[in-house]
Write a structure and sequence with these properties.
Blueprint (H helix, E strand, L loop, with lengths): L4 H11 L24 H12 L3 E11 L17 E10 H18 L1 H7 L10 H4 L2 H6 L1 H16 L3 E8 L9 H22 L2 E8 L4 H13 L13 E3 L5 H21 L9 H13 L4 E3 L25 H4 L10
Parallel strand pairs: 1-4, 3-6, 4-5
Antiparallel strand pairs: 1-2, 2-3
């Protein structure tokens, strides 16, 4: 077998479609990729391990819930959502192009009538997740439920995970700071993504929908990457901000956030958002099975939230190592 260049990697990708029991046992759990065991992406991840190449993941993030203050669903002004967070999906780089094409085809089939009515090319036509995941749509159209489950299954089959981090908003309107809340959640998301990459002996690239506070986001991300006692060394660049209508992967992240925002609203205030109980009936278990290092913190009104240290510790869902091992300090990273 050749040991250099694309030929070696291609050969390993083909020959390593093995059952998990056949994988050698001398490779540590920390080095073992966490993708789907029988997927091509998982085989490629193992090829990277054997060749000594660092794996690369892409995290596609968007907002869920609402960034502004919340009082009640029937409040005349502050009524959008009781939660806010960032979410989407993590994919190995080798699966990105295939997944993007797959999602594009699913979107075209599911929403063919709307796309035709829009007069736009489907590659740049976008359906927002908040508009897709309504009580009416989910209850009336089985196709929406089926397509959602297919997306979750495809992410896992591609060697990836759903990812989200958020919290319930309880600060009084007069004290509310939207930018501080956003940057706090961003900092926590970067911490968890760095831990995800570290466990998989991989690097991470973050791609986000463009945001008006671009400068503040880049500053916060750079601080997290290079400063403090635990720099996020696995994140190789500050987040890239892109136009979501031109990226199928970002559109998929927006769909996931549309669903996660509904789940969070129901969990935070079931007394006000009881009509969202379909999130538990159809999707909660599937989201849990497909997600990694993800949670929405539900808290009392007296809890301070605009503080990275106040956010919850990592909640594992689908990771290879138990929580006790995950909480241990990672091995020293020689990179600057």
């Amino acid at each position: 077998m050749s040991t250099n260049g694309e030929g070696a990697l291609g050969s390993l990708t083909i020959t390593m479609r093995l059952d998990m029991a056949a994988y050698p046992t001398h490779i540590s759990d920390r080095t073992r990729p966490t993708g789907c065991p029988n997927s091509e992406a998982h085989a490629l991840a193992w090829a990277f391990v054997f060749l000594g190449i660092v794996m690369l993941y892409f995290a596609y993030l968007d907002e869920f819930g609402h960034i502004g203050p919340y009082i009640a669903r029937n409040d005349p002004k502050h009524n959008d959502s009781p939660v806010f967070g960032l979410g989407g999906m993590i994919l190995p780089y080798s699966s990105v192009r295939h997944f993007s094409t797959w999602f594009y085809q699913l979107k075209c089939n599911l929403l063919a009538w709307e796309i035709e009515q829009s007069g736009q090319h489907p590659a740049t036509w976008e359906k927002k997740g908040a508009s897709l995941f309504t009580t009416l749509n989910v209850g009336k159209y089985r196709q929406v439920r089926t397509a959602t489950n297919r997306i979750l299954n495809k992410i896992r089959a591609s060697g990836g995970h759903v990812f989200y981090v958020g919290l319930q908003k309880n600060r009084p309107v007069a004290e509310f700071n939207s930018q501080a809340l956003y940057l706090t959640v961003l900092g926590e998301a970067m911490k968890r993504l760095n831990q995800y990459a570290d466990q998989n002996d991989a690097d991470m690239v973050i791609v986000m929908d463009e945001h008006q506070d671009r400068e503040a986001i880049l500053t916060r991300a750079s601080q997290a990457m290079y400063g403090g006692p635990t720099p996020r060394r696995r994140i190789i660049e500050p987040p890239f901000q892109v136009e979501s209508e031109r990226y199928q992967t970002c559109q998929c992240a927006d769909w996931l956030c549309g669903l996660i925002g509904r789940i969070g609203a129901f969990q935070a205030r079931p007394d006000e958002w009881g009509d969202m109980d379909w999130t538990q009936t159809f999707f909660q278990d599937r989201i849990d099975a497909a997600s990694a290092r993800s949670s929405i913190r539900l808290q009392t009104a007296t809890t301070e939230v605009e503080d990275v240290a106040a956010l919850p510790e990592v909640v594992d869902a689908g990771m290879a190592q138990p929580a006790a091992e995950d909480a241990a300090a990672p091995a020293a990273d020689p990179r600057p």
